[in-house]
Amino acid sequence: MRKKLLLASLAIFLGSCGRTPPEDGYTSLIETREEPPGENCDGGGEAVLTGVDTNRNGSLDPDEVENTVYLCNTTSEGATTLIQTSEEPPGDNCPAGGVRITWGLDADGNGQLDDAEIQDQTYVCNGTDGADGADGADGADGADGQDGAPGSLVSISPEPAGDSCPAGGQAISTGPDTNGDGVLQAGEVTDTTYVCAPESGEGPSSLIQQIEEPPGDNCPAGGVLVQSGTDLNANGTLDSDEIAASSYVCSGVSSLVDVATEPEGENCPFGGVRVDVGEDDGSAEGHAGNGVLDDDEIDDTVYVCGAQQPPGAFRLSATDEDYFAFSDMAGFMSGGSWSILEAVRFPAGARPGWHFFRGKAWEDKTGDVALQVSLDENPPFALGWVYLGGWNSFRWDDSSSSVLRPDTTLTFCVQFDADTNMLAFWVNGVKRAEVALSSVVDDSSNTNPLYFGGQAVAPDKLEGDLYTEADVVMIHQAWLTRMLSVDELIAYDGTNFVVDDTTVFATDIREEGVSGQLDFYDLVSGTFATPGNDPEYVTLE
User: Fold this and answer.
1) Under 8 Å between Cβ of 467 and 321
2) Quick one: which H or E segment has residue 100?
3) Within the chain, what is the greatest distance between any pair of CA atoms?
4) Strands of 152-159's sheet, edge to edge?
5) Residue 510 and residue 70: Cα distance in Å, rounded?
6) Is 397 exposed, middle or buried (0-12, 13-18, 19+ CB in 10 A)?
7) How far apart, in whole angstroms, are the C-alpha atoms of residue 150 and residue 255?
8) Mean pLDDT (the chain, rounded)
9) Which of 32, 211, 338, 396 has the most CB atoms at less than 10 Å from its CB?
10) CA nearest 254: which of 367, 149, 130, 326?
11) What pLDDT, on a 0 to 100 scale, did the predictor assign at position 145?
12) Are the CB atoms for 114 and 102 separated by under 8 Å?
């Protein structure tokens, strides 16, 4: 015999519960109890009780029961009646959420109340929040806390020509505002850093200035706006279009400023000053109130960078057999696009010959590259090679003799597009020649050095220490693992190159690294070149 549940007193349940939620944020509760045989259910069953938890103890107490529904057993044949509850999210049925109760006959006898078997439903809703009560009386004031460390101040003033700055400049002083007057007094200065003007002929100055910042969104209690940039028009004033960076130093007991020398690198290619500002609040791993601006407490940084110096270069002489040799670049070209870029000059009367990028003529390897520039021919020409299963050549004749001229900065680019297998040759930002290669270049096993000027000793040659070379003034050279855009090639003059994450090699030419007979430095990889003889350092106008 299959049990059968019958619904009794359903009208009472629906009429008294409905969908009206209890007030004042109380929670509605549902409780199911076994109902013994008797007046409510002849054969016994279950009692479903609902009500509001007025004492908020999480239980439905007898005096909180508002409605009762009986689900009675029967011994007659037929389907079982099932009841099911589910959470009801806040919405039209229950503004504050609650419980949805559904019931119906288990027609397919699977013991579950399927959607098609639901005969009716109702909702038991949570109470909505009541109105806020009146604020209570203020409690007694707590004990005064320990005073924090005084905040830092920054002061920027002109620095006359002297020991600190031979050509004058600016002094950036910092220190704690120990007397709390908001002004950095002489006795409060703990550190001074100088931003010096370049000496005669060295280029434009970097400037830093401070402007009073009134109380507002940037600084609730006011403060100072610190701005920096380069004095491009050389008027001694940081004009609005020359401002490169800005930061706020806000008034407050925990504001700190830290000024330090910034070395040459990504932030300042030619070095400069770093100004850090922040709160002495113990952010992350910092230490609150110790009067020191820890790394984790830095909120903003301004760099006051030194201006770019005029380009330097070195002269390689065929007569003196000068050259520079860097380490190998194995794998530079392997499997992808690449570009070799350089800016050079050839003096009037220069000996024509090979200007090598990489390779030894007696040790040809995949990925070797060489360039020959001859200005005394009619017409002058540039001729180059890339080794891939043999030498693949490209040549451009300057029929007008208007580009390949002595004592003129010339820019060359050898560029390979791995998508098309095309090797292109650019002179002064214009594509002059192009040749198809049979495949991409895999130079992973090429350990030949990169050379400037000529090549190292050829064991079977009798023409001195070098195989062949040409007089050349090297301004800049860079190797990149990508295609350069036309705009980049047009703009390039050897002084405006920006190192990015595709740059494998880029020269850094300085007087102390050439005429000082120090090793010549590759600013990207950090490797040094081996000089041959003593190349002459040249300052370009």
Assistant:
1) no
2) strand 98-105
3) 126
4) 152-159, 169-176, 191-196
5) 97
6) middle
7) 8
8) 77
9) 338
10) 149
11) 54
12) no
> Using one digit for the tens of pLDDT, what is the confidence trace for 255-281?
677 778 787 777 776 677 788 877 777
Residue 252: how many CB atoms within 10 A of its CB? Answer: 17
Name 437's Cβ contacts closer than 8 Å, sequence gap at least 6: 386, 388, 392, 416, 421, 422, 423
Taking the C-alpha atoms of residue 71 and residue 47, their distance in angstroms, rounded to an integer, is: 6
* Type of residue found at 89: P
Identify the residue whose tokens are 């589910």. 86
Q: Match 């939620």 to its residue by tokens.
A: 21
Q: Which amino acid is at 400?
A: S
Structure tokens at 362: 């007696």
Burial classification of residue 361, based on how many CB atoms lie within 10 Å of its CB (0-12 exposed, 13-18 middle, 19 or more buried): middle
Return d(Cα 325, Cα 160) in angstroms, integer: 44
Residue 152 pLDDT: 67
Q: What pTM did the predictor assign?
A: 0.48
pLDDT of residue 362: 67
Find out whether the peptide bond into 379 is cis, omega within 30 degrees of 0: yes
Q: Is 238 exposed, middle or buried, given 0-12, 13-18 or 19+ CB atoms closer than 10 A?
A: buried
